Amino acid sequence: MYSLLIFAALVSLFPFYWMFVMATQPNHVINQTPPALLPGKELVTNFQNVLANIDFFGAMWNSFVVSTAVTVGSLFLCSLAGFAFAKLKFKGKNVLFVLILVTMMIPPQLGLIPTYYIITKLGWLSDLRAIIVPGLINAFGIFWMRQYIKEAIPDELIEAARIDGCSTFRIYWNIVTPAILPAFATLGIIVFMNVWNDFLWPLVVLQDQSTHTLQVALRALNDSYSRDYGMILSGTFWATVPLIIVFLLFNKAFISSLTQGAVKS
Amino acid sequence: MLPKPETSPTTNIRKKKMSQSVKDNITGYIFVSPFFILFSIFGLFPMIFSFYLAFFKWNGLGPMTFAGLDNFRIIFADALFWKSIYNTVMIGLLGTVPQLIVAFLLAYALNSQVVKFRNTFRVAIFMPYVTSIVAVAILFSIVFNNQSFGLVNSIIGLFGYDPIVFTQSEWGAKIAIASMIFWRWIGYNTIIYLAGMQSISNELYEAAKMDGANLFQQLRYITIPVLKPFILFTVFMGTIGSLQVFTEPLIFFNGNLRPEGITVVAYLYRDAFESNFFGTASATAIVLFVLIMIFSLINLLFTNRVGRSKKRGASA
Amino acid sequence: MKKWWKQAAVGVGLMTMLAGCSDGESASTPKDGKVVLDMWVFGTTGYDELAKAYMEENPDVQIKVQSTEMGDHHNNLFTALSAGKGAPDIAMIEVGEIERYRDAKDRFTNLNDLGAKDLQANYLDWVWNVGSSSDGEFVYGLPTDIGPTAMYYRKDVVEAAGYPTDPAELASTLATWADYTKFAEEVKAKTGKPVVDNAELIFNAKRDQASEHYFNRDNELIVEENAEIRAAYDYTAELIQKGTVGNMPLWTPEWGQGMADGSYATLLGPAWMQGVVKGNAPDAAGNWLVTTMPEGAGNWGGSYLTIPKESEYSEEAYEFISWLLTPDNQLNSFKDMGLFPSTPETYEKEEFKSYTDEYFGGINTAQVFADAAAQVVDVYKGKNYLLVQGEIMMALDNVLNSGGDPDKEWNDAMDRIKQRLERE
């Protein structure tokens, strides 16, 4: 079991380590074959080059705002809808749910131009709302929350709360949300990382440099005719570090809420 | 004055239930409406637009001209289109099936109480999901390099074989792309399985152990049944995800998509954003949409049957 | 748990606050009567510095220069132009990309209407023509820099092959492509190295000397009947089959490493490749030299500055770009950023004539490329140029890596091209 885990961990970690190695090397070393496996001396220089080229911390702040907003917003909307689909009885529920599943099946690449058109109509070009608001649509999140709430919350509990006179929203807020914290942690990590790493859409709508998210800003490091991979990977590496921190933070919340649940049951 | 007849407790409850169902209806709609409102603005309109486009020729800038079913005729007559479907399915199978099995094993190992440093391992295994696609691209271009110094080719070379030109090898290209998918998503699926496994209380296993169930039986009668929704979920998402694979082949071919590894979405992307043939690209998107529906249905039918037979097996 | 929700609430509050704040900063609103020009460029142009100089002279104009990665830049511009909103006042378009806008005259300001006709004489004819419609009536953009091609070569490899290493001597020894074939065989026999890094550059070099390429000026596909293109293809295939073409695709690590190690004898590249060579092979100073390539030159790269139709300040924008691209300022861009001028007048300037580059053996590389610029053939490319190019490259790749038969691969490529063009 250990050998499996150690092997998997090494394979998983290596590219990350290697990104760090390349972030410490001058460009011509990166081209070398076989590639360098030990860190070089350019760690500071490469990052200074990044800072000279882009507003790294400004972009990081934008990324943070966008990712947090989308994460919090979609956790709320997804759990609310997931709860409705899992526990409430309303007409057309199944049809609506299937519809949500169907929306996951649409290849998103083609929607670029019409969606851009809508954003221009809303006047949201170079505005973080252009990322946040469409980002709240998360069919996958609703699906995930519905499955989780269905399994995690017994119907009797809801019935009991109703008899006590709780409104449906109160039931959601006071009973459902505390019980699905692990699902929040998991979905939250997934959403946060996806938004943080996304560049296809932000690239198109965030035209003004002051609104760039990290991934958009990092792409500006790719010069058209020559590439300084040391600098690019330095930017990429430091852009990933906050993600790891977020993961570690949520990871703990994830575990403690799980053990809590176990103690209770 | 006649005394007011006391309402019987039964009618009272019924009334309450009636109003409750009305309330349920309303709150149900309110709770799901944010999604549908947002979706109709940012999802439905673009979708209808591309459906409409499939029947026109359009280069993104000029006027649209009606083409009837011509876009469909063109792509159906294109051998590369069929090849791209075949590639997508093959890459999907290669990238997903082994991945889910390994993810299950990893999650099982991570869930085991005997293993130390579980948290460290969990973080490590999740790392690929966090790593930027730029780093993945550069890394894999070295692992699967066409030259003899590429990592895989060096290993092959040790056994005295000639280096493989991965970008032009029928299976080499597919395996390379599939392994990118494998690597990037394994941590994600492991975490999902782990979340499922941690919802199973230890007492259940203890009880099973006392009943003399071996490891395999525990897996089969406790872990897998509880994990069924999670497995369904990953299979479902894996199917949809692999039918939409796009970034990996684009990276692998460095933009010059070749028939050995072009996927449907990459095919669509090339038409739309390299050549600005939005008509055929939209037609491809519709075909892909239908394909995803079919695969999802097969998926559902298959998993439902598996679930049912298992239940029958368990009750027998 | 409570803490968690508190943090989340703070996050939501923050985002609404911020979203509200960023509202005011919408682009190109005149501030205190100033005209604000948004300008999109890619790569390192140094135009922001020149813009500062311009703003000092013209205090009522404010120019916001924004640089994006080349591919992203063009995709964003296309999306904005397609949706009809969001394009800047001035947009830089690369020479290969300008082809896709041939039919989209309604999205651009005709610079002839703003007086571009008067400037035409300043620029090289072929450069000017690429930025205009076939009849010359509509001018999409003013040329910025160009990328005339020449032959970079490794002194050590050429020497080992028994050829002269002096630029002029080598050029006269390799005056024709037949000479180059012989040279390729010698290089292979004496050093075991390929003569060229990959099939693409040798094909492009010969292709660029043809008077017509894949489409004629009526935009009809002529590649199949075009003997010159077929000759370029056959020549490349022949060199491949002789084992003298390398397998180091552009921009890959092995390509860069090959530059440093001298894994190939020649690199048939444009003026801006000088920076790439220096970057990839910092230790090879003096080992790389430049001279003219056999039978003429081609062009790879360079851009145009256009004014999208939706700009409200097309006249102010035109004022600025016509100033930015004068021969004097092109000399500045050349000195600062290595952008090769599209104005032949610049080539006559003293600073240009006395230019030398220590890295490239102390020769006047600028003169080599200026001579090349004069030899470039004026050719029409057409909006589906890259599609055709891609399929021919795939054919050559198959010959190079999978031992494909050149004739069969050519025919397959022609079939694929026709199949894809049906979608238009």
UniProtKB/TrEMBL annotation, chain B:
Superkingdom per UniProt: Bacteria
Keywords of this entry: Cell membrane, Membrane, Transmembrane, Transmembrane helix, Transport
Major site of localization recorded for this protein: membrane
Compartments, as annotated in UniProt: Cell membrane
Pfam family, one: BPD_transp_1
Gene Ontology annotations of biological process type: transmembrane transport
Cellular component per GO, a single term: plasma membrane
Segments traversing the membrane: 26-55, 89-111, 123-144, 175-195, 226-246, 277-302
Membrane association type: Multi-pass membrane protein
Positions of the ABC transmembrane type-1 domain: 85-299
Family per record: Belongs to the binding-protein-dependent transport system permease family.
Stated name of the protein: Sugar ABC transporter permease
Upper lineage: Bacteria, Bacillati, Bacillota, Bacilli, Bacillales
Automatic annotation (TrEMBL), chain C:
InterPro entries assigned to the protein according to its UniProt record, in alphabetical order: Bact_solute-bd_prot1, SBP
Coiled coil ranges: none
PANTHER family on file: ARABINOSE-BINDING PROTEIN-RELATED, SUGAR BINDING SECRETED PROTEIN
Name of the protein in question: Carbohydrate ABC transporter substrate-binding protein
Species this protein is from: Mangrovibacillus cuniculi
